[in-house]
Write a structure and sequence with these properties.
The chain is an alpha/beta fold. The chain has 2 domains: 129 residues, Leucine Aminopeptidase, subunit E, domain 1; 320 residues, 3-Layer(aba) Sandwich (Aminopeptidase). The strands form 4 sheets. Strands 7, 8, 9, 10, 11, 14, 15, 16 and 18 form a 9-stranded mixed sheet that branches. A 6-stranded mixed sheet has the order 1-6-5-2-4-3, with helices on both faces. The protein has a 3-stranded mixed sheet with strand order 12-13-17, covered by helices on one side. α4 links the parallel β5 and β6. α5 runs antiparallel to α10.
Length: 457
């Protein structure tokens, strides 16, 4: 995976990144021949523009690239594929953080999902920037590739059992403890909502449980929605809404990717990863509208909509996580269309019951070019989840504030004393952008790791 990076720089082509604002000042310091070539090329440092300066042998002596921000990974994301095959070195002083971001962006630009279709594209190679944190860059690129690969894999090859296999492989890699509870054993061990959602499929539901770290370290628990395909159940989705439902395990994919970063960095935490892995199908055994289930926490829930299954599988996992009184709980889920309507594809919705925790995550989101937007846990909407015959409904009757009411549902399964963050994400790119190809995407994990490393390292 690291073939696009090298430590050899003797014959590398200088690669200069410059913003439009600093271009004129930079140009004045260049040799006359370089200035003449750039003027003839009408290059002004516009973001995304590239000019190749020839040498005397008609090769390339230097490449100049216009960027919006030299510290953004996305300024470098299209260069591995856009530049001719060869080795390049950044010809600019960058801070350690910016150099690391440049390396990450370059690496993410080499991603290709080639499990089913051969791709022969050759990528340009980057010499490691001197100030870059190599370990962090590599584990970040590995984590993003893991999340993308899992999300992009279609449901016929990635059901609950295959998601378990991927989690098991990750646990083995980091010498973590691994356990699963499968099928009717979920009922025996009191995970009724996970069982209820997954029982309609011939592919057995399960709860994946990874534990890593030394006893006595602060407990950090990560929970990911692992709905490997979502038909909507009896409240069946239309074909357009079902088309990309292979990505409904995007929360689980991102949690596994974040767990990889934590374990690879050997953060001094007691990590637990919980992934309820199910397929929400239509069958004679599937849950029905108006069914009532008693959750692990003891609350009874009326099923107002079988297509609101993600919060059902998460609530038992969150109740289990909360029982251990962890220092932090983070859950990730492709949970609501309402969050996408409000914030679009790039901004996961962050809900958090602790202001300092939320501020830390948001700050690292800005630092890592991995943004999110905090929405309120507005308690006034809690009544919208009331049921006449159960403790609560899994949906509200109206269409207002859908992301908020979903988060309020989950909050009912977490103690007030537990610091908890819920991330409602899209986990998908609708089109190709530098470093971010169309398809499955890792969101929030670079920000979350930055926060965890600052808090615990």
């Amino acid at each position: 995976m690291s073939d696009f990076l090298t430590g050899r720089s003797s014959s590398a082509i200088p690669l200069t990144v410059v913003t439009s604002g600093e271009y004129d000042g930079w140009l004045e310091a260049q040799p006359a021949g370089v200035r003449a070539w750039l003027d003839a090329s009408a290059f002004k440092g516009k973001p995304g523009s590239v000019v190749r300066i020839p040498d005397a042998e008609r090769g390339v002596s230097q490449v100049v690239v216009g960027v919006e921000d030299p510290a953004s990974p996305w300024s470098y994301g299209d260069l591995p594929a856009r530049l001719e095959k060869g080795t390049y070195r950044l010809d600019r002083d960058l801070s350690a953080h910016a150099a690391t971001q440049a390396t990450i962006g370059w690496g993410l630009g080499t991603y290709a999902f080639d499990r089913y279709k051969r791709r022969d594209k050759a990528f340009a190679t980057l010499v490691w920037p001197e100030q870059a944190d190599r370990d962090h860059a590599l584990r970040t690129i590995e984590a993003v590739f893991l999340a993308r690969d899992l999300i992009n894999t279609p449901a016929n090859d990635l059901g609950p059992a295959e998601l378990e296999d991927a989690a098991r492989a990750l646990a083995k890699k980091h010498k973590a403890k691994f356990n699963t509870i499968v099928g009717d054993d979920l009922l025996k061990q009191n995970y009724p909502t996970i069982h209820m959602v997954g029982r309609g499929s011939v592919r057995a539901p399960r709860l994946i449980d990874i534990r890593w770290g030394k006893a006595g370290a602060p407990r950090v628990t990560l929970v990911g929605k692992g709905v490997c395909f979502d038909t909507g159940g009896y409240d069946l989705k239309p074909s357009s809404g079902m088309l990309n439902m292979k990505k409904d395990m995007g929360g689980a994919a991102n949690i596994l990717a974040l767990a990889h970063m934590v374990m690879a960095a050997k953060l001094p935490v007691r990590l637990r990863v919980l992934i309820p892995a199910v397929e929400n199908s239509v069958s004679g055994n599937a849950m029905r509208p108006r069914d009532i289930v008693k959750t692990r926490k003891g609350l009874t829930v009326e099923i107002g909509n079988t297509d609101a299954e993600g919060r059902l599988v998460l609530c038992d996992a969150l109740a289990d996580a909360d029982d251990e009184k962890p220092d932090l709980v983070i859950d990730c889920a492709t949970l609501t269309g309402a969050a996408r309507v409000a914030l679009g594809q790039d901004l996961p919705a962050l809900f958090c019951n602790d202001d300092d925790f939320a501020a830390g995550l948001t700050a690292h989101g800005g630092r890592e070019a991995d943004p999110m937007w905090r929405l309120p846990l507005w308690d006034g909407y809690r009544k919208n989840l009331d049921s006449d015959i159960a403790d609560m409904n899994n949906v509200s009757e109206g269409g207002f504030g859908g992301a908020i009411t979903a988060a309020l549902y989950l909050q009912a399964f977490v103690s007030k004393e537990t610091k908890w963050a819920h991330v409602d994400m899209f986990a998908w790119n609708q089109g190709n952008r530098p470093g971010r190809p169309k398809g499955g995407e890792a969101q929030f994990i670079r920000a979350a790791f930055g926060y965890l490393r600052e808090r615990y390292a």
